[in-house]
């Protein structure tokens, strides 16, 4: 009986339907204004507060320990989020992400059981070389989700674009996406190689995460 009610309850969400259609057509989706301007400001302030409290760590790559090599590959600083210990901005953030996850699971059986998200800050001059998000041998990562928290007046000359390397009929095509506030980019972790271009000026702020099976 409960199941029947659940199905009757179901309300189609055009935004989430678009994400599903995009991903099944071309393996990625870009959603502008997924987060409102106010939500971006709150989450950015939360990020900056924790960054200033020295809670971020230099990102690492797999098992590699040579810091010189790492700097050549990625230059961001990160802090993992804990869903069991959230402030107001993070609660709102996880509510929205969970709505999306529930919708995906209900409508297209992606079987997402876990997720992991971290804040990221790219100082001026840093980048993240071309990679696949499964390089840590984590084949449980199904979808990568990147949420940008930059200022409203973010200038495209600041650099820091996300470049997705797509396959179009056997040839490689670059899709260049600016890290605009409120924008969320979702792509198949196992399939799409991507890169963060050098940040020319300012700091580039985001939350990045993975939706995982098992
Ligand atoms: O910030 C982005 O646009 C992408 C970040 C990324 O590729 C990663 O953290 O694996
Ligand atoms: Fe990545």
UniProtKB/TrEMBL annotation:
Its cofactor is L-ascorbate. InterPro entries: HIF_prolyl_hydroxylases, Oxoglu/Fe-dep_dioxygenase_dom, Pro_4_hyd_alph, Pro_4_hyd_alph_FE2OG_OXY. Residues 108-213 form the Fe2OG dioxygenase domain. One of its GO terms (biological process) is cellular response to hypoxia. Keywords: Dioxygenase, Iron, Metal-binding, Oxidoreductase, Vitamin C. One of its GO terms (molecular function) is L-ascorbic acid binding. This is Putative proline hydroxylase.
């Amino acid at each position: 009986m409960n199941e029947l009610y659940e199905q009757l309850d179901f309300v189609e969400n055009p935004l989430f339907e678009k994400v599903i259609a995009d991903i099944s057509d071309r393996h990625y989706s870009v959603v502008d204004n997924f987060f409102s301007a106010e939500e971006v400001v709150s989450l950015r302030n939360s990020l900056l507060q924790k960054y200033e409290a020295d809670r971020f760590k230099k990102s690492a790559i797999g098992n590699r320990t040579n810091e010189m090599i790492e700097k050549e590959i990625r230059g961001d600083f990160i802090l993992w989020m804990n869903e069991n210990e959230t402030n107001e901005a993070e609660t709102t953030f996880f509510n929205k992400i969970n709505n999306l996850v529930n919708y995906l699971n209900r409508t297209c059986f992606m079987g997402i059981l876990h997720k992991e998200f971290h804040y990221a800050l790219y100082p001026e001059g840093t980048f993240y070389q071309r990679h696949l998000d499964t390089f840590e041998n984590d084949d449980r990562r199904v979808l990568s989700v990147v949420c940008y928290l930059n200022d409203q007046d973010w200038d495209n000359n600041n650099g820091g674009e996300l470049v997705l390397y797509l396959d179009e009929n056997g040839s490689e095509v670059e899709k260049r996406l600016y890290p605009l506030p409120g924008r969320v980019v979702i792509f198949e972790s196992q399939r799409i190689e991507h890169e963060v271009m050098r940040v020319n000026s300012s700091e580039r702020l985001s939350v990045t995460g993975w939706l995982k099976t098992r």
